[in-house]
Amino acid sequence: MNKATDRKTSKTKRFVMLTVAAMMLVMLGLTFLICCYTLKAESHVRYVSILNVASERIAKTIRGMEMSAKNIFDEVQQHLDSPDAVIAALKSKTSQNPDIKGYFAAFEPNYFPQRSKFFQPYIYKGENNGQYVESQVGSGEEDYTKSELYIKAKKLGKSYWTDPYYYYDGSDLSGHYCSFMTPIYDAEGKLACICGADMTCEWLTKELKQIDYASKQNDLQNRFLPDKEPDFYTVVLNNDGTCIAHPEGRGLLIKDKQVINDLKQRKNGMVEMTVSGKPVTVYYGPVADHNWCVAVVVPAEDTPQPVMLAGLILLVVAVLGMIVVYILVKI
Q1: What would the pLDDT profile of 273-319 be if each residue is shown by its tens digit?
Q2: Which pLDDT value is given to residue 135?
Q3: 269-273 — which CB contacts under 8 Å span 24+ positions?
Q4: CB contact burial 184-203 (16+ within 10 A = b; e otherwise)
Q5: Using CA atoms in the order 206, 210, 162, 241, what is the torsion angle rounded to 10 degrees?
Q6: What are the backbone dihedrals phi and psi of residue 128, each rounded to the nearest 5 degrees, phi first?
Q7: Contact present, 134 and 122 (Cβ < 8 Å)
């Protein structure tokens, strides 16, 4: 009778132990899944925050450029009585925004009969001393009225930013630019000229570098990351997926039709893809009041490592727990 009772008690004990072990494994598994989800959510929120900061900073700088340009364009509109007055107006406030390479006013043909047929004064920042220099683009012979930039501004009848383009004339003006274009009308409502402010794409690259550096040095934002510095980087995209500006050697080309559609519709999103043979996660979103988009490229190895550490710890705990249960069952 006692032996039968002991066997029954032993079976009950084993059942209880195995049940406890199974529950432990289930709890550890659920804990690991919750941990993974939490850390991924934290990573998602962090990079979306970096994306939003980059977008707002670029938008703020662009708004500053537009404001400076409009101030000068207003001066031009108020001084259409002579070519010299126009040149003086272009020079009047050029120092207000150092991020702008130069300002120009491309007048309708023969607007100033005393000057050449094509009158387009350009005031730009020289490379050597940083002082603003006066130039007559094309020496009065270039028919800029046939250029795509001029035609578009004339057709729209309002301000707009151009797509990036390359300008070359053999001087220090040659380079990649984006321009803020505005049509200027005289007192009778007739088109007088197309004014423009040029921003170099090199400036935008420097801006991205500063944004990335500030984000990587943010102790509060990165306090729970491992000691290794995050390896993400930020780029500026056109709404067709082409890369306008990026850190040296780290470009990005979007070919996914759904992502390009999101960019055109100014939607935020996230996509996993391969860049230079390495898996990355790309967070993207529009720049406020502008046709550009910003993307934060996050390499797979930049995902928070605590996920793997938590999994390893839970695995060790599970193995030790099973060993303890095995020993107790055998006693």
Answers
A1: 888 888 889 999 999 878 889 999 988 765 555 555 666 676 677 67
A2: 82
A3: 270/44
A4: beeeeeeebbbbbbbbbbeb
A5: 100
A6: -75, -60
A7: yes
